[in-house]
Amino acid sequence: MHLAAYYFRAHMYTLVPRQVREDLDWMADLGTEAVCLAVLEQDLVAARANIALIGDEAARRGMRLFAVPSRWGGLCAGAPKVPSQFAACHPETWVLKTDGSPAFSSVSGPTCSVHHPATAEFFTATLERLFAVAPFTGVVWDEPKNLNLVDASPAARQALGSRWADPLSHREAHLAFLGEC
Predict the structure, then answer these.
(1) Which of 62, 80, 145, 166 is deepest in the core (most CB within 10 A)?
(2) Whole-number Cα distances in Å, 38 to 112, 114, 154, 174
C-alpha cells in the first residue's frame, strides 16, 4: 500500500521555508510516499516559488509530487473554494442548462464545458506550465464536479449529437476529458 497526503498550502503565498521542511519531515516520518499539492490557476503567477519549494523539499525526502488542479474551469474540487479564473473570463465556454442559463455554483461560480475546445486548450496549457515549475509525477483529479449535469451548450450539442440530453453521455465525456489531460 502507498501513502499519499494532500498538502494545501502553496496558495497561501507567504510560506516560511522552515515550516514547509518541518511539515514534510513530519509527513515523511509517518511514511508518506507522495505529496499531493493543490494548485489554483493563479498559483502559476503568484506562487511559483512556493510550488518549487514544496516540490524540491518533497524530492529531498524521496517523496513523489502530484498536482491537484483546484477549481480549474469549475470542473474539479481541490482547495480553496474559489471560482475558476479561466471560467470567469471565458463565458463562451460555460455549461448551459436546458433553459439556456449558465450552470452556476454559489460556491465556485460557473462551470466550463468539457466539449468546448478552449477548455481543453486551457487545461493542456496550464498543465504544461505547471509541470515546468516542479518535478510532478502526475495529477490527482479531486472530486470531479457536475458529473450528472446535462450540458446544453452549443459545443456539447455538437459534440454529442443526438445523445446531448443523456446524462450518462455527459458523465462519460467529462471523465474522458480528465483522462486525456
Answers:
(1) 145
(2) 20, 21, 32, 20
